[in-house]
Structure formats: structure tokens, C-alpha cells
Amino acid sequence: MLRPQTSPTRELVNLDGSWRFAVDWDRRGLADGWQSAPLEGRLEAPVPGSVNDLFHDERIRDHVGYYWYQREVRVPRGWDGERILIRLESATHEGTVFVDDRKVAEHRGGYLPFEADITEHVAAGETFRLSIAVNNELTNASIPPGEIVEHEDGRRTQEYKHDFFNYAGLHRSVWLYSRPAAHVEDITVVTDRDGSSGTVDYRVETSGGSGDAEVSVRVLDEAGKEVAQGSDASGTLSIPDVTLWQPGAGYLYRLVVELRSDGQLADSYSQSFGVRTVEVRGKQVLINGEPFYFTGFGMHEDHETLGKGHSDAHMIQDFQLLEWINANSLRTSHYPYSEDIMDYCDRHGIVVIDETAAVGLNWAIAGGIMGGEEGGTFEPGHVDDSTAASHRREIEELIARDKNRPAVVLWSIANEPDTAVDAARDYFEPLVRLTRELDPSRPVGFVNVMFAPAGRCTVSDLFDVLMINRYYGWYVQPGDLVSAEQSLEKELRGWDEYGKPVIMTEYGADTVAGLHSIYGQPFTEDYQVSFLDMYHRVFDRVECMIGEHVWNFADFQTKYGYARVDGNKKGAFTRDRRPKAAARALKRRWADKLGR
Ligand code: BDP
């Protein structure tokens, strides 16, 4: 799925700003056709942004169901004869889009883009009323899953297994764009190396054209110089003296795809890509043939006021801190991140483990850490066929969005599912197969939970790279780093026997900024430092360990629970991005590790 852009044949209008806003308290909006008139009331909400932390009325924060957004949009007058599309970068977790009275799109899955062709319902130069009903409900048919509890007094509350606040709204930009009727529909680029040359396998799909439409492609380097060209809809190009996309040094070429009809330019789209290879060999992940060691974090899109809303200022601050601390990579825990963040990683050489929103597929943890009901994970009403169908769609849409990104070196198709049981294998086998079919060029992984240790996990052998989250010294053996060190080493030696590369994708300790002790006391900054040091000593002793992603980059908001004081405090930075002592310790550790 191509990200909209301006080109010689395409135009783009950004629809962000303050929109009319209303809460559908009684779930009447869709039936009563709220799209057909201006929304009642005087509330406004920002796009992009989460709705939850904005209003003084706490019921809005806690509402389970639909929020409505609305604004007027004028179609540029020059767009006559073009196809006109509306694109939402996300609607969390479900979006229904109306142009005036008419429904034009409906999409489930809160972290991936969707669009609709609205040409038949609008006119160049005229205005229309754009309404979007956003539903924040999580059920066993959604990814991530959740459960809505209907109380005797009529209240509805949302439960879910994952450990981050269920922020909702229009978290990313909304666009109106024009595209020619005959157009480039999709582009796939896969790169390789051949000595000092880069090879570029490309495939272009077109749509809406007549039979005689012709595709041509040119590759431009960062200076805009043409370095290769082709005259078919698919083929292999060679870039002599290629500049590789490298960790820490992103370099992007552009594949300019042109579609001609009767010799006239019908459409033009410029797809950026980087030339790099990824490969798993033995216990290593090789990028461009070199062993890569991951330093960095599992992150969250999470900020004061904005919730999960995207902001360029916050994004750039986060990336500056990542650079400062010597992080070379991140995991998009626990959902696909905004396309702006992904573009930044492509441009700057930040290595990404790209994760679906399949988090909380685990009824076994629920009774443990996070509190909640028990019962089997893979059973009707919990994780069942409807969950699997959504999970498949998540994988398809994520790969469709991110397949051309050089930054993405590994797919993570789930975080901490219940893989201590046999049923997990039946659930995951087809999903792994699907991921490989959709993208044979990248390794596939998932993130393993501590309750399915080496030897007990029923699915690890299906994957190329093992990712594990461990909390020895925190949830297990809290405050006892001596025992924790022994347990951790014992388990990692078990994983080493799988003969695959292993990344520690989470390890961390809740830490209250400013709290200190001369003793090894949990929650202090000192304990966080000792805890991380202990893990690092162990990693350095075990061959299969090829990466360390601390949990988490920054403190973040969670649902309420006795184990959370104003959220999860495992950040190396506070929620407002001030460093804890651990941040400086990590900066030193990663400088050493990366030889900087
Ligand atoms: C892991 C989860 C992560 C949590 C973390 C924690 O993957 O989302 O926030 O533990 O408890 O289980 O801090």
C-alpha cells in the first residue's frame, strides 16, 4: 500500500487540526445517522491525538464505544477529472468514514492505514462534510484482544490483557489526495548486493489504465542523479558503486515509477528504498553480511496529553535521545508505529523490529502479573478463530505498508502469547507461513514470555530469530540479583542450544526517578542500574545473544492496577524524557559494545 505523496501527477491535502467532536454515549450515532448533520455540542478534538487525556469529564476518558469526529473539507478546484481519495493513517481501533451521508470506508485494527476512493461523492471546488466514527472497543475478535464487561448498573467497562493504556482516537494524520484514474497501485522493492553493485528487484502493479499503458522506472540517488533505469513493470536493476543503507547511516535511493498512456505521462510515484541485505546465519543476524548487535529499546507511542497521537517534535526528541544513548535499533512494541516514525528510521539508519498489535494473547499471565481472570488462552471466546482472522489481516496490512522499508529487518508477529501450550502451535504455524509467503526477504520472529522458557515453548522452532522478555530480578526473585543472575544464565544457556540468534527484547525494573538507596532496593535508580548491569554481564557470556532492548525507553501510561503507580516506570527516561541514572549507564555500555 503506497503512502500518499505529491508528484507531477498527484496532490495531497492535509486535514489535521481541531475537529468537531462528540461522544456517542448511547451507541445511537450509526443508527441515527450522525453523519447527516453537524455533530451536537461544542466539543472539539485534535487530529492527530488521543481523546483520553483532554477533557475534564472523566466519562469521556473512560467511554467504551464510539467517538465521532467531523469537519468540512473543500476539494481543490483543480482536481476535476482526478480520482479523489481519503486516507487515514490510523483510527484506533475501528474507523467508519462518511462523506456527507454516505459510508465510504470501514476499517478494523487501530494502528494501520486505510483509504477510500470518494470520487463519486464529491466535486472539485466544492465542500463536503467528513465524519469519522471511531470505536475504541476491544473484543476477542480484535487485535489486540479484550473484553467488554456489561455491569448490572448498565455501565460498560473495557478489560484487556496488555500493559499499556487503551488510548483511542485519530492518532495520526488524515489526508485528502488526488490520483489519476490510470495509476500506480503498488510497488515492491527487494534489494541485494553483487560485489560493489546493488541489485534491485522491483515489481509495479498498475490499475485503471488501458491495455497500452507502459511502465518505466528510474533510480535516483540522494543527489537526484539517475543511476539505473528500466522499461518494464518488473525487473532487476543494477546500481554500480552502490551506497548501502547501513545501520547508523541510512541512505535512500528513489525508484521513480512512471506510467505512460499513448505516450503521455499518466502517473508518477517515487518510492524510496535502501540497498541492504538481511540474513540469519547460525546464531547471528547479518546486515550487509556483517553480524549486527541490537542495542536499544522496546518503545511506546506515548506522551502526556497526546496519548498515542503522533507529533513530529516528540518524535525528533525521542530519536535524539536514542542517538545520544547509542541505541542502534528499536522494537515497535506493541503495535505498528506511525509512518512518520518509520520514514525517520529509514532515513537515519535506525534498525527496526516491526511488531503487529498482537499483544495480550495470553490468559495464563492474566492471573499473574496484571491481575484478571484465568482460563485457557486458545479457547472459544478467548483467542479463537475470529482472533486468528484479525491477526492474519494485521500481518497482511503491516507487510503491505512496510515491505519496502530498509529499516525493517525482522517481523515480530506477536508479543508474549501463551506459547507454553500445544494449541499455540496450531495457532501460529499458519501465521508464520503467511508471513513468509508475503515477505520471503526478511526473518520472522515473535516475542516469547517468561512462562514458556527454553525447552517448554511450543513454537520457537518455527521462527528464525528468537526474541525473549525476561524479568529475573523483578517479577521473579525481586531484589535478589545474585539468584536472578544464576537463573538468567541458566535459561539463556538453554536457548543457546536452539542454535538460533536470540535478542533480549525486554528486561527492566520499575524505577521512580529521584529515588536512591545504597542498598539493592527495587524501585530505586541504583537498583535499575545494577539490574541492567547484571543482565549485560550474562549476555556477554552467552554466545547466542545478539541484542539487548531494555524495557522501556520511557515511562508510559497503563491501565490502573496495584502494580502500577501512574503507569509503568521501567523507562530509562521519565515520561517527559528526562534521563534516569540508567540512561547514562546504558550510554556507556552501548558505546563499549558498539566500539564507539
Ligand atoms: C511484559 C510486556 C510489556 C509490559 C512488561 C512489564 O511485554 O508490555 O509492559 O512486561 O510488565 O510482559 O513491564
Question: What order do the helices and strands come in, and which of them pair?
Answer:
Blueprint (H helix, E strand, L loop, with lengths): L10 E4 L2 E7 L5 H4 L11 E4 L10 H5 L3 E9 L8 E6 L5 E6 L2 E7 L5 E4 L9 E9 L10 E5 L5 E5 L13 E6 L3 E12 L2 E11 L6 E7 L5 E5 L3 E6 L13 E9 L2 E10 L4 E4 L2 E4 L2 E2 L2 E5 L13 H13 L4 E3 L7 H10 L2 E5 L7 H4 L18 H18 L5 E8 L7 H16 L5 E5 L17 E4 L11 H16 L5 E5 L18 H15 L5 E7 L29 H13 L3
In short:
With 596 residues, the protein is an alpha/beta fold. It has helices at 29-32, 58-62, 312-324, 339-348, 363-366, 385-402, 423-438, 481-496, 525-539, 581-593, and strands at 11-14, 17-23, 44-47, 66-74, 83-88, 94-99, 102-108, 114-117, 127-135, 146-150, 156-160, 174-179, 183-194, 197-207, 214-220, 226-230, 234-239, 253-261, 264-273, 278-281, 284-287, 290-291, 294-298, 329-331, 351-355, 408-415, 444-448, 466-469, 502-506, 545-551. The strands form seven sheets. Strands 23-24-25-26-27-28-29-30 form an eight-stranded parallel barrel, surrounded by five helices.
Class from helix and strand fractions: alpha/beta
Q: What is the mean predicted local confidence, pLDDT? A: 96
Low-confidence stretches: none
- Figure out the total of helices: 10
Radius of gyration: 24 Å
Strand content: 25-35%
Would you report the number of β strands? 30
Please give the alpha-carbon distance between the first and last residues: 38 Å
Largest sheet: 8 strands, parallel, barrel
Bound small molecules, by name, code or SMILES, are:
beta-D-glucopyranuronic acid
For the largest beta sheet, what order do the strands appear in spatially? 23-24-25-26-27-28-29-30
Q: What general outline do the C-alpha atoms trace?
A: globular
Helix content: 10-25%
